Structure formats: structure tokens, C-alpha cells
Amino acid sequence: MSPTPAVVADDLGKRYGDTVAVETLDLQIEQGTVYGFLGPNGAGKTTTMRMLTTLTTPSHGSAEIAGHPVTDREAVVERIGYLPEEPPLFDELTAREQLEYTAGLRDLPSTAADRIDTLLDTFDLAADADRRIDEFSKGMKQKTGIVQAILHDPDVLFLDEPTSGLDPRASRTVRDTLASLGAGDTTVFLSTHILPVVDELADVVGVLADGRLVAEGPPEQLKTRAAAGDQRTLEDVFLDVTGDVGDGLDVAGGGDDSLDVAGEDSDGSRNGSQTGTNGTTPNSHTADSEQSVVSADHEEGQE
């Protein structure tokens, strides 16, 4: 019997009134795949990831994560890690408290403390682990968000611009970590505008444009197809299949701080509150609603 695919989507789509965010999407991503998810700003990438992580309810179609429908939120959340473009962190906690809080929400064993220490050291955060997150730089917050997303060793890891704000050394650590995860059983769903990252790491690339998947395949295969038209890079493939909507593209491996995909999910999100380890409830504005994928007790927001 063949293993259950890590990600399956069948006619998946999302509308906000008369606006189509994702028209129709069919996916099948096998376990242990690093899937590079590309597309110009506004193509529907963030909306797709939010549907696959249970944060946004599809308007039509279906999806499964590790064999569980996205309508079964508790089962899906248990099996995924998610880093949105803005890491869902509580500014009033220290990095260690944030990670301990996450470990508690996920009912991780007491050995999670050792894993937290190991990951903090890997991402060069150990010396700052007991500082409040509101004192962190953008890059330090990003690294904390990555540690949070992989802390429980998820079956499927969803990452939206994971190298945003990182210096070259930290970016290399992230790339090495993702390569190591992909070499095992973890499936990595990687959305980014930085094509060298995708070219280096991805086993399969999917390109989304105007809410539709317009190209999919291994990077070398896509580049070979493009070579017939004297196009030999992933950038050429991207520009060819997305037509004139390829803005926001970063082919040099940096400058992604200027990207703007905000507004794709102005409604249809899940919202709620959470209580920190010290018994206080963090202010709602200090952490994005994506923090809710750590916990299964949030009610769905209005569609």
C-alpha cells in the first residue's frame, strides 16, 4: 500500500464576496517532499496556506493533511507546523516562555525542554532566550517563530517567507534545517519569493497565478522545458508562466522585507484568545491569529 500523501487538495477555492482569492486548486504532495510554492503578490498563496492550515474555511472543494480533512481541525493542527509571514509571538513573553507555552499547548513531554535548548542554540538564540520578545529584532523574532513551528517535529511544515529579515548566516541555518527535515519524513510546504532558496531546496515547484496552479514539477524539469525557448533559470519559468504579474520577485536571494501580500485574508480567519504561562492573557494585538494553529480551542471567525 502506498503511503498517504502529506497534502491533498481537490478543487479547493476561496472567494471573498465577488473577489476570487483562489479559483481552483488541485494538489497531491507526497511525504518527505520539499514543495516550493511560488507566485506573484496577490496570486493566492497566503490564502492557500491558510486554508490548508485550517485558519480559513474554503468556499468550495476539499483538502487533507496527512490523511485528515481540514474540517477536522484538531487532527490537522496536531500534525502541522506553521510560520506565517509575521511570526505569531506574544511580545510580553521571553523567547523561552513562548516556546515553553507552545510545548504546553501541544502536550509535549518534559524532554521538550532539552529540544528547546537545542533549537535555541542551533538558531543562535540561546544567549537571548530570557529576553522579552518585544526587545528582539525582526530576524530574532523570525528565528523564534521557526523554532516554534518545528518544535513538535510536525508531519507537515508550512512556511511563508521563512528567511525574511534574516542575515546570511541565519538564512543558511534555515536552509540547512529545511534540507535536513526534507531528507527525513517531514513534508515542507515552502512559500517564498526568493528563487535561489526554492532552486536549492525544492523537490517539486508549483507556481500559482490568478488563483490557479499554472505550472508544477521538479525545478530541473521546469527549467528544461523553458530551455527550448532560450530560458534556463527558474526566474525565466516564473516570468513565462505568470505573464505580466511577476512583481515582488527576488532572484538575488534578499530584499524580501519589501514584499506585500497583506489583505489576502481580510476575513474568514479564526480568532481567539490564549492564556500565557504566567496566568495572564496576552493582548490580542501582540500575536497574529495564526498562533491559533498551536491550539485547537479557537472558534471560527465570521466568513
In short:
The chain has 303 residues and is α/β, with parallel strands linked by helices. It has one domain: P-loop containing nucleotide triphosphate hydrolases (Rossmann fold).
Which features characterize this protein?
303 residues, alpha/beta, Rossmann fold, six-stranded mixed beta sheet, four-stranded antiparallel beta sheet, 9 helices, 30% helix, disordered C terminus
Describe the structure.
This protein is an alpha/beta fold and 303 residues long. The protein has one domain (7-88, 154-170, 179-293): P-loop containing nucleotide triphosphate hydrolases (Rossmann fold), CATH 3.40.50.300. It is built from 9 helices and 12 strands. Strands 6-7-8-3-9-10 form a 6-stranded mixed beta sheet, with helices on both faces. It has a 4-stranded antiparallel beta sheet with strand order 2-1-4-5, covered by helices on one side. β1 (7-16) and β2 form a beta hairpin. α8 crosses α9. It is globular and about 50 Å long. It starts with 6 loop residues before the first strand and ends with a strand. The model is unreliable at 246-289 and 295-303 (pLDDT under 50).
Per DSSP E runs of 2 or more residues, the count of β-strands stands at 12
**Judging by the overall fold, what is the CATH architecture?**
3-Layer(aba) Sandwich
The neighbouring-strand order within the major sheet is 6-7-8-3-9-10
Helix residue percentage: 25-40%
CA-based shape: globular
Give the CATH superfamily: P-loop containing nucleotide triphosphate hydrolases
Tell me the Rg in angstroms: 18 Å
Number of domains: 1
Structural class comes to alpha/beta
